[in-house]
Every structure is written in C-alpha cells, then in structure tokens.
Specification:
With 222 residues, the protein is mainly alpha-helical. 66% of the residues lie in helices and 2% in strands. Strands 1-2 form a two-stranded antiparallel sheet. Helix 3 packs antiparallel against helix 4. The radius of gyration is 26 Å and the shape is flat. It starts with a strand and ends with a helix.
Amino acid sequence: MKNCPYCKIEVGGNLKKCPLCQSKLNGEAEQAYFPQQTTLKIQSFFYKLQLFIVWTLVIASLGIDFLFHITPFPTLQIHWSLIVAMWLIVFEFGIMRLFKKGISSSRVLTLFVFIVLIMLMVTAYYIHCFRLVTDWVTPIVVMGTLIANFVLAMLDKKGNAMVYLLTNLVVGILPYVVFYFSERDCPVTWIVCLLVSVILFVGAIIFKGREVVGEIQRRLNV
C-alpha cells in the first residue's frame, strides 16, 4: 500500500499522488480500486483536439488578414477574418454546447437553426446579400425546421417536442404579420411558410390535440 510522507496517510489502489496534498506517494501500488474511464479520456482528447483546431483557424485567419493583408475576397469591404472568427467562436461556444446528453432533439434542432440563421443574417448584411437570406434562405430553413419538429412531436412520447413545434409555428406566422402591417409585399416563400405553419398546426391538433391544449395552458398559465 502506498503512503504519503507528508500527510502520514495510507492510500490504496494505484494512485501516483496524494489525494490531500498532491505529493508523490511512496510504497508499492496495489490493484486499481476503480476501472479506468477510457471512453471519457478519448472524448476529452477529441474535444481538446477540435478546440485546438478551432482556435488555430481563428488565430491564423486573423493573422493572414491583419498582418499579411491577404484577402480571398477583394470586393469585400470588411475584414473577412472577423466573419470567419465569428462563425468559429459561435460554433465552439454556442453550437457545441447543444450536443449534450439528455437534451431533447427538438431543442437541439430549434436552437441550432436559430443560432445559424442569426449568423447567416449578420454575414449576409456585410457581404450585401441580406435580402436573399431573409426572403429565401430563412423561410426555407424555417419550413424544414417546422416539418422536422412536427415529426419529432409525433414520435415523442414524453411531450418535450410539442413546445418547440408551437414556437416554430409562431415563427412561421409572425413574418407574414409583420409584412402585412408594414404594408409591404410578402415574399412568396414566407407565404408558403405561413401555409405550412397552419397545416402543421392543424395536424398537431388532429393527432396530438390534448398535448397541444395542455402545452398552451401550461405556457400561458391558464
């Protein structure tokens, strides 16, 4: 059995350092008390590896742009490395945090799409294609999210997906309302998105009527 020369305690197993003072233990090691967590070590290694790659790309892009003044987009009026750094940092600290055990698929999908759409709009604003993203890309992505959450809500036995389906339905209807009251022509893609929202809401009531009512009552405290 190993022992600590400073704390005067005996430590079983095959530890190399004292659990109290972290000094090197003396004596012969015994058989390990607990199995090694090889899976956690592998996951930790790959997480650190991707973290290193992300920050390497951020630093390299900033250096190439600001120090060497090299740009692959001559027509871009801003520093392209800032957009690259923004995407990588959001990927690391935003999107990567979503993929944890115990988080429902609907929540991951909804938050993932929400974060990506915000990033797309910010990027589109600076590269001068904002209307393309808001009028075409965003409604198509929202429609895909609506359909995916509808399927998840139909398959979900715990009822965790229903709130995200109802939230996405509001997102699908809200832009049409904004265009209507601002007296602007609503793009056809948002009109289709509105129709998909209504169809899926009717479908949710038909297939999961009690869950829809219960979720609305729970969220609105009625």
